[in-house]
Amino acid sequence: MKRVDYIVYFIKLYNLVWKAAIPFLKKSSRLKKGFDKRVSAVHFERSDLWIHAASAGEAYLALEILKAIQPGKPLCVLLTATTDQGKEIIDRCATSCQVSSALKVNTEWCPFDMPEIIGRAVDKIRPSVMVLLETEIWPGLLYCLKQRDTKIFIVNGRLSPKSFKKFSKTAFIWSKLAPDRILATSEDDMKRFARIFKKSHVSLIPNIKFDALPQNNTLPAGTEVFLSTDSKLVVLASIRAEEERLVEKLLEKVSKNCPNACIAIFPRHMHRIGQWQKHLDRLGFNWTVKSRLRGVAGPGSVILWDVFGELKTAYAHADAAFVGGSLKPLGGQNFVEPAVFGVPTVTGPFTDDFQWVGPGIFGSGVVFKARNWRQAAAHIVQVLENGPPDKTDRKKTAVEYITKHQGGAGMAAEAVTRAVG
């Protein structure tokens, strides 16, 4: 009697779980957009390369890889996403990233990982190579790809200790679904991947996120001037709700010690504007929302920023910046962006989501990591009291640091293109 591999039984059970879940998923408002395409495969076309970018972060990585691809022959690429934001990004940017006339890029929603559905999608697409980004590891997709001899890459791979523990508990499954190649972003990630996927070829590349970091520190001509020439500007950026009380204390400390400083507050989420209005009234500040600012802001003013898309403008004029999401364990926000403008930049102690940037950025003096709000406030006060910062040298140091760590997208693109054949 022929022995049936246990992975077949697992996939059958996995399929039944998905089948039971689909009616409930259909009711989800989060999955409403594109739902019909998430449960179908009829709309797909044959593609040489399939890159799956689940959400916004992965979408930007996928686009960096696309920009680096230089095919020697016509290449059809399918980009898929799972979230609304990820889909919007690949739709908006895919065309602009086609630097080669030989590159044709299509974008679609990624089907659910139900083996029946994803299997039909793989049959329609028939990719030579599949690229999964970071930790987008789905058993149904991997199984169907391996059944059809598609080469599977995990690119910019990262596997946190927490995720490693979860994968370790089901290692008997993943041993049958190992990708062909894993391009990891750190030595620790390499070791963790190698223990889960023992049959995969695991190697190291620079984090592609460095390729996506901004290096352009100039603003277009005609950019609005909102600050008087005799004002020093402090930007409190990407402030999360959970840390607002601590940022209030930082705000009071900076304002007390530097009463002539203009302070701009950028909540991470716009729905917190109303709450910040209450905070500022309670603290006794005279403030205005940016949308009502007439003329320029003078010394000692507080601007509550309620206009989208102007954080870079504020950074370009800033004498100091604090980047939030970092006074409590919330992962942190992008502290590299103000540094590229040459702004003395401060974060709190919690920057886990940006560990990939590396400790060198703090050692360079471009970004200062404070232990708490008091140290953050004291550093900002010191910067302001020392006079206008030398932005030229800071810009140069930040850009050199980024450039030194770039190249991952090119390495990934070369490996993938070679595998496509």
Describe it for me?
The protein has 421 residues and is of the alpha/beta class. The chain has 2 domains: 6-206 and 407-420, 3-Deoxy-D-manno-octulosonic-acid transferase, N-terminal domain (Rossmann fold); 232-404, 3-Layer(aba) Sandwich (Rossmann fold). It is built from 18 helices and 14 strands. A 7-stranded parallel β-sheet has the order 3-2-1-4-5-6-7, sandwiched between helices. It has a 7-stranded parallel β-sheet with strand order 10-11-9-8-12-13-14, sandwiched between helices. β6 (181-184), α9 and β7 (201-204) form a beta-alpha-beta unit. The two termini are 40 Å apart. The mean pLDDT is 92.
For the structure shown, list the relevant keywords.
single chain, alpha/beta, 18 helices, elongated, seven-stranded parallel sheet, Rossmann fold
> Which spans have pLDDT < 50 for at least 5 consecutive residues?
none
Within CATH, the superfamily of the largest domain carries the name 3-Deoxy-D-manno-octulosonic-acid transferase, N-terminal domain
Mean pLDDT: 92
At the first level of CATH, the class of the largest domain is Alpha Beta
State the secondary-structure class. alpha/beta
* CATH topology (fold) name of the largest domain: Rossmann fold
* Shape, per Cα inertia axes: elongated
